[in-house]
Amino acid sequence: MKKQLGKIAPAADTSTEQNPAILEGFNRWDSETAEVIGDLLRALRRKKGFSLFFVQCNPDQGERAIKVIRKSFPGKRLVQIESNRQSETLYGELKKRYQTEGVDIACITGVEQALYSYEDTKRLAGWSEEEIYNYSWKGLPPLLSHLNRSRETFEANLPIALVFLVPSFVIDYFIQRAPNFFDWRSGFSEFAESSENLPKASEELVDKEYEDYLFLTPEERIKQILGIKEKIIQYDLWYSKEKSNLLLEQGRLFESNKDLQQALDCYNRALKVNPKNYKAWNNKARLLDWEERRKAAPKILAEIRSRPRVNPANFGLPDSTELIREDRDR
């Protein structure tokens, strides 16, 4: 079972609703998301000393949340640190900026960039709980190893609010690979796509040219797969068509990298959600046909190898050249 996350409890504080600057930041947010960020702001206001927050969101939501946090605390020094694929540590940079700039709130984005190249990420992109939660999790990403080892150092030397704004798969990564650090969280918030925007955002991810997928780098491919999964998990059963199409597209991405079992799993899930998805039926049938042919290949090759050799002399020929030519032209 996936570990349950404690969300930030709503508070009686109403200062968020009474602040015009904050309300301005909420104008483009749906009511549910505005409530989530309101709870986060109240928690940030209450906590003293070192505190650790995780916000599950996409990059666009994260940038908008940072803007609202900055507006909500004009008297505090907020810094944004964006991780990249080379990022292996965080404490050193934070400590330096705390000493030179007097940081009160540090917002960390881009952690997913440091994880795309790891094999574990491919497993998190799929749907098999056996693969995700029973895997040995070899090859710990250096950034998460650093955070796990340094949690006491953060608390002892950085009396700041540390806010990680990351996609859902990064939250899963923290749970599995950096539990010591993640368990010290002061709060967890989750932003969802608005019900009005979700279908449109989903349409932009499907029906891509398969040939384009073949030229993706492994990191580009896994990034797209995870982006689709972010949308899938936000759908409920009332959106069977959209969810099924996203699962189909995810399967096509897996298939373009020859991850056939994961592709087949996606096609099966697409059909379970929407049995009328004929494209998923077609892709599943093609994969199963290929698999049957692959399983039959060793037997066919063995039969070919076991056939007796033809002796050209039995046909009055000096060598096999003529026999080969006849077989080719048959």
Overall description:
The chain is α/β, with parallel strands linked by helices and 330 residues long. It is 57% helix and 8% strand. Strand 2 (78-82), helix 5 and strand 3 (105-109) form a beta-alpha-beta unit. It is elongated and about 100 Å long.
Q: What attributes does this structure have?
A:
5 strands; 330 residues; alpha/beta
What is the end-to-end distance?
A: 61 Å
Strands of the widest sheet, in order across it, are 2-3-4-1-5
Shape: elongated
Helix and strand content put the structural class at alpha/beta
The mean pLDDT is: 79
Strand content: 5-15%
Q: Major sheet, described briefly?
A: 5 strands, parallel
Q: Work out the helicity level.
A: 55-70%
Contiguous runs where pLDDT drops below 50 for at least 5 residues: 6-18, 131-137
User: Radius of gyration from the CA trace?
Assistant: 27 Å
Number of strands: 5
Write the layout of secondary structure elements.
Layout: H1 15-18, H2 20-26, H3 31-46, E1 51-56, H4 59-72, E2 78-82, H5 91-101, E3 105-109, H6 119-125, H7 129-134, H8 142-149, H9 151-157, E4 161-166, H10 168-177, H11 179-182, E5 187-190, H12 198-203, H13 210-214, H14 218-232, H15 240-256, H16 260-273, H17 278-306, H18 321-329
